[in-house]
Specification:
heterodimer; A: 243 residues; six-stranded mixed sheet; 10 helices; globular; B: 421 residues; mainly alpha; 2 domains; two-stranded antiparallel ribbon; 7% strand
Chain lengths: 243, 421
């Protein structure tokens, strides 16, 4: 049946039904397509109006199950928060605590997460002193601490310069043992790191498949510099008019 | 590392911990040092620190209450495996500890000063420290409750000002704090423990109450929990007495001398001044009649009937406020005059507006204190009284000691001849 989600009388996600395998899944779509709402639903922040989220063969049904599931979900909102006076290592330890990890694992889990995002040298740096790229990497460390089976990253590359985006792609590529859902506007990010792509429009998936399969939908008569961009335009004809 | 320690390590309050510690210490140490050497006075002295620190604590707690939202952590908290109430309980717990520690440090510093002589009555110090702890808990709870439901920019200011207003006015009428700790008063430990429990209930009610939903108006129904908790804490405070009169001790500290003077055991630090003034009493000629024994205030009781109700009222012959020899000299001079002119008709003295006895009493006060410049001030003194004091001062400063005694004998003879059958 799939999950449906909305705010008030507005339906934002309409019967989204998909099984995700380990690897990086790109969630592509225009503003208002429902990407953030879908991620929040998968993060169990919003219970779906219809349907159910199933994580590792366990149905997430009710607050107790959701809390249990959150131990295995790493979620990085688009505008994630932090105490600017907090040191990077404490920020990640705090995430480990919020993930419900036992205290004896906080240090090792934080160290591993910081190593994965290449921030070990900055573990004692205060969050306010980090550059935009480093702050975003600290956010990813927040999401991946404790190696959750589902990592949800909402537009994590917004505001990063090209070098920082390359670094980000390298980090995300190293997380393939988990299901990583990456919401983005940037087709080049999808091309570089995603194994699977979901193109979302008005709350419904317009395409699901590999990047190669998506690229094959590109037509030369459509605007765009790459086959993926032309395919995106092909799937979402309204976007062409917005160019 | 425990969750509480993690929250303590990461709390923004740690950046202002030094000023928070300095504030109550500065207030404690800027007070006259008369509290040193008395456990109840030491405990009471730190209550002034608690007064001001609790005002800061209310504002800081309101600010901290909104810190998670202010730092944009609501979304991450909503996605956490740890229940939101537990997450808030740890933040509130760390905030409470960090705001309580400065008060307890000030209390410990006070303890260290008085512990050097270690007089009797340490339980009174514990009672007063508990009193301040309750104040701090209530302030934190109040601030946190406001910060939880209202914008942090306003809630911190509102919490700070409202707590100050409460402490400055109704708070004082219910013994939420004290400004001094005389030996004849005691913190009511049972009542304070009741207050402590209800302050803790208030804190717990806040954490259990529904949180304000993100991007929505405050959940007014959710206020029922903290308001009930606050009401319970207020009722517990209003219906209990923070301090009460003490029972007369079985073995008061009596200093033998020309006059035996009995003190509260907690006031043993006053023995030197008592002995010094008793030494002066022993130099008075025999025409001065001395009482056999005097009691510090509170060591005597009088049954009083008022409105059909009989109750016990504290009585005493002298006080030694802040260890002042002038306070004792004033009370001793009154006691000696009363004894010397015991058989006199005081109504006639008052009707005649004869200030002779007052002149003699004032001279006696100067004589006992060995000075004519009291360290206290008086106001609204009648013309006749002022003239009497001037005469006494002139006699004390201008006459030789021998002449003074002769002059006092003549004055006494005149008063006795006129008013004493």
């Amino acid at each position: 049946m799939g999950i449906s989600q909305g705010y008030g009388k507005t339906r934002v996600i309409d019967r989204f039904d998909m099984e995700l395998a380990p690897g990086v899944v790109g969630l592509l779509g225009p503003n208002g397509a429902g990407k953030t709402t879908l991620l929040r639903t998968m993060a169990t922040i919003m219970p779906p109006r219809e349907g159910k989220v199933v994580l590792d063969d366990t149905v997430v049904d009710g607050e107790h199950a959701a809390r249990h599931a959150r131990r295995r979900i790493g979620y990085l909102p688009q505008k994630f928060g932090c105490d600017p006076g907090m040191r990077v290592a404490d920020f990640v330890r705090y995430a480990a605590w919020m993930r419900g990890m036992p205290a004896e694992r906080w240090d090792s889990a934080a160290d591993l997460a910081l190593a994965q995002v290449d921030l070990v040298e900055h573990r004692r740096t205060k969050m306010r002193r980090l550059s935009g790229g480093m702050r975003q990497r600290a956010g990813i460390a927040w999401a991946i601490v404790g190696q959750p089976s589902l990592v949800l990253l909402d537009e994590p590359t917004v505001g990063l310069d090209p070098r920082q985006r390359l670094q980000f792609r390298k980090i995300v590529s190293g997380l393939r043992q988990s299901v990583v859902v990456l919401s983005t506007h940037l087709i080049e990010d999808i091309d570089a790191i995603c194994d699977q792509v979901i193109v979302l429009h008005d709350g419904t998936p317009k395409f699901t498949g590999t990047t190669a399969e998506l690229a094959a939908l590109g037509r030369d008569d459509l605007p765009g510099d790459t086959n993926l961009e032309r395919a995106y335009m092909n799937l979402l004809p309204g976007e062409e008019q917005r160019l | 590392m425990t969750a509480l320690r993690l929250h303590l390590r990461t709390s923004p309050l740690r950046w202002i911990l030094l000023p928070l510690v300095a504030l109550p210490l500065a207030i404690l140490l800027s007070q006259p040092g008369s509290w040193v050497g008395s456990w109840p006075e030491t405990g009471a002295a730190v209550q002034l620190s608690a007064f001001f620190l609790s005002v800061v604590a209310a504002g800081a707690a309101a600010w901290m209450s909104g810190s998670s939202s202010r730092h944009g952590l609501d979304e991450q908290t909503a996605a956490a495996a740890v229940p939101a109430a537990r997450a808030e309980a740890y933040r509130l717990g760390a905030t409470t500890v960090l705001l309580l520690v400065p008060y307890l440090i000030a209390a410990a510093v006070g303890f260290a000063f008085t512990a050097r002589t270690f007089p009797a009555g340490i339980q009174l110090w514990f009672g007063y420290v508990l009193m301040g702890t309750v104040v701090m808990l209530l302030a934190v709870a109040w601030g946190w409750a406001l910060g939880r439901y209202f914008d942090p920019a306003y809630s911190a200011l509102i919490a700070l000002l409202s707590w100050f207003a409460f402490r400055a006015f109704p708070g004082e009428t219910v013994d939420l704090g004290v400004v001094n700790g005389p030996a004849w008063r005691q913190p009511d430990t049972e009542a304070l423990l009741v207050r402590f429990v209800f302050a803790a209930v208030f804190l717990a009610a806040i954490v259990w109450a529904p949180r304000r939903p993100m991007r929505r108006r405050p959940n007014w129904k959710g206020l029922v929990f903290p308001v009930t908790g606050a009401a319970a804490a207020v009722i517990a405070t209003m219906t209990t007495t923070g301090v009460s009169d003490r029972h007369i001790p079985e073995n008061p500290l009596c200093v033998a001398g020309e006059v035996e003077m009995c003190l509260w055991p907690e006031d043993s630090r006053h023995v030197p001044v008592v002995e010094a003034l008793d030494g002066r009493l022993s130099t008075l000629p025999a025409f001065w009649r001395l009482p056999e024994r005097l009691h510090e205030y509170g060591l005597k009781r009088q049954r009083v009937s008022r409105g059909g109700e009989v109750f016990s009222q504290l009585e005493g012959d002298f006080r030694i406020p802040a260890g002042s020899k002038w306070g004792l000299a004033l009370d001793l001079s009154n006691a000696v005059i009363a004894q010397t002119l015991k058989s006199c008709d005081w109504d006639s003295i008052r009707k005649a507006e004869d200030f002779g006895p007052e002149t003699l009493r004032k001279w006696l006060e100067f004589y006992l204190a060995e000075s004519s410049t009291p360290e206290y001030r008086t106001s609204d003194v009648s013309q006749g009284m002022q003239e009497a004091w001037s005469v006494a001062s002139a006699a004390f400063t201008e006459m030789s000691p021998r002449r003074q005694l002769e002059w006092t004998r003549q004055q006494l003879d005149r008063v006795k001849a006129t008013y004493c059958g």
